[in-house]
Design brief:
Blueprint (H helix, E strand, L loop, with lengths): L1 H10 L3 E11 L10 E6 L2 E10 L9 E5 L16 E8 L6 E8 L4 E8 L9 E4 L37 E5 L10 E5 H12 L6 H21 L6 E5 L2
Parallel strand pairs: 1-7, 6-8
Antiparallel strand pairs: 1-4, 2-3, 2-5, 5-6, 9-10, 9-11
Length: 239
């Protein structure tokens, strides 16, 4: 019943958004041509909506998909989900299949979904990715409390005497004291882009989006400088 309700809610959307897929190899970042892409409603994997192939650049055509009305994402107290969620499944000869659940599509906006595929000779596992809900709509635990002013001692190894723009950040995917959580090397630009995508809506006015991204950049660089970032621990890496 839950799947039926989810599908009905998406089918009854009166607006449309668009989606484009970019498929590249995880080794060498070369485009993957003729990858088979299947689009379905998240929560109803049998609901095949589109089946397409990538071109020589590893890109799909632009697909038009149902999305909730624009006003849903423009009202702060809106209780109705302001975006539709789709699942993207990709298969290609010589590569491990990839499934990405929860790709957001907003009214009037183009969703760009990058897909990295592992060659079969370097990986034995299929990749299944689940994108969590946007932080403005989903239910998440409160941020870890922190002191407004924290002492910063220059170690000469990690903390610098000035704020720098890093090439990479190392994101500890857990609380600072959780030694079991994984560490990930992420390009600084990609980190900012991914945080923005999960914390604001693409339908907002351009000036609002820019202001929020500048705030995210400032907050991240502050945490790089102090080695402290709420629920994640971040270090800087310059190449």
């Amino acid at each position: 019943m839950q799947k039926q309700n989810l599908r009905a809610a998406q089918i009854n959307h009166v607006d449309n958004g668009t989606m484009k897929i970019q498929v590249t190899s995880a080794v060498g970042l070369i485009p993957v041509e003729d990858a088979k892409v299947r689009i379905s409603y998240t929560g109803d994997p049998e609901s095949t909506l589109e089946q397409i192939s990538t071109d020589a650049e590893g890109q799909s055509e632009i697909l038009t998909l149902a999305a909730p009305p624009l006003e849903y994402s423009m009202e702060p107290e809106q209780l109705t989900q302001p975006y539709a969620e789709y699942t993207v499944e990709v298969e290609a000869e010589g590569y491990r299949p990839v499934s990405i659940e929860g790709v957001d599509v907003f009214s009037g906006e183009l969703s760009l979904q990058n897909v990295r595929m592992e060659p079969t000779e370097v990986s034995e596992e299929n990749k299944n990715i689940v994108i969590p809900a946007n932080t403005l709509f989903g239910n998440f635990p409160p941020k870890i409390a922190e002191a407004e002013i924290k002492p910063v001692d220059e170690s000469g190894e990690i903390v610098l005497s000035r704020v720098v723009i890093p090439e990479y950040v190392v994101v500890h995917d857990g609380t600072p004291g959780d030694s079991t959580a994984n560490d990930y090397y992420v390009r600084y630009k990609d980190y900012i882009k991914n945080v923005a995508s999960s914390e604001i809506y693409a339908t907002w006015p351009d000036s609002t989006i820019r202001a929020n991204i500048l705030a995210i950049m400032s907050f991240t660089l502050n945490r790089v400088y102090t080695e402290w970032y709420g629920n994640h621990h971040i270090f800087w890496v310059v190449e």
